[in-house]
Amino acid sequence: MTVVAPRLTLERRLLGECELIIALDEVGRGALAGPVAVGAAVMDAKGARRRVPEGLRDSKLVTERRRPEVAARAAAWVQASAVGWATAREVDEVGIMRALGLAASRAVQAVVDQGAALENALVLLDGNHDYVSRVHPVPLRVRPVVKADRDCASVSAASVIAKVARDGHMAELHEGHSGYQWDRNKGYASPEHRDAIRALGLSPFHRSSWAIADAPTLF
């Protein structure tokens, strides 16, 4: 199957209506353990005239081996980038959608701290639901777009940046909880991960409010 590279068609059109695009995409929404992460990538009209980096795709379409180099090219290509996080405990406390909003709001604030101005910015969000506006303390202009991570290069950049950051974080957590094999499954529901939960119970990094497995908690 031929994979079509993302383009800047939508971004260039939207940048006729605003000065800045803050592209967002989430990673880790369906994981059993670890945080949810939202990547942010900033694009202006000048940046939108630059060539899309080689190999840039939605993170799910880039092999794990190639993701770090593609993420590095993506970060160098955009005007600013960041990753916002919401912990497993926050997912338990407020639910996954609000946790996504918290992570997205933190990602937006991080690029604002790097100099991105919100006054005439548009948030380009992958998906069909605006989960960031109700959480962010400052009003945002948000445009959800289905399959933006596949079709819009700025969102693809946010996707791969977030994926590499979260995978690296799960590899670090693996060092203290190696029985769950997070270096391989990244906290997702692989058979080995579910087997480990049954054998070991839940760690403090699992989303304990989710129906994960028939195992007692350890905390």
Named at the architecture level, the CATH assignment is 2-Layer Sandwich
Mean pLDDT: 93
Q: Class by helix and strand content?
A: alpha/beta
Global morphology: globular
Q: Which superfamily, in CATH terms, is the homologous superfamily?
A: Ribonuclease H-like superfamily/Ribonuclease H
- DSSP strand tally: 5
What's the structural domain tally? 1
Radius of gyration, rounded? Answer: 18 Å
Number of helices: 8
β-strand amount: 15-25%
Binding site for a divalent metal cation: 25-26, 126
Domain RNase H type-2: 19-219
Catalytic activity: Endonucleolytic cleavage to 5'-phosphomonoester
Cofactor: Mn(2+); Mg(2+)
Structure description:
It is found in: Cytoplasm. A divalent metal cation binds at residues 25-26, 126. This is Ribonuclease. Its main location: cytoplasm. This protein is of the alpha/beta class. The chain has helices at residues 9-14, 67-77, 88-94, 96-113, 148-151, 153-174, 182-185, 191-200, and strands spanning 20-27, 36-44, 80-86, 121-126, 142-145. Strands 3-2-1-4-5 form a 5-stranded mixed beta sheet. The longest helix is centred in the last third of the chain and has 22 residues, at 153-174. The radius of gyration is 18 Å and the shape is globular.
Q: Would you spell out the secondary-structure blueprint of this structure?
A:
Layout lengths: L8 H6 L5 E8 L8 E9 L22 H11 L2 E7 L1 H7 L1 H18 L7 E6 L15 E4 L2 H4 L1 H22 L7 H4 L5 H10 L19
Parallel strand pairs: 1-4, 4-5
Antiparallel strand pairs: 1-2, 2-3
Helix pairs in contact: 2-6, 3-4
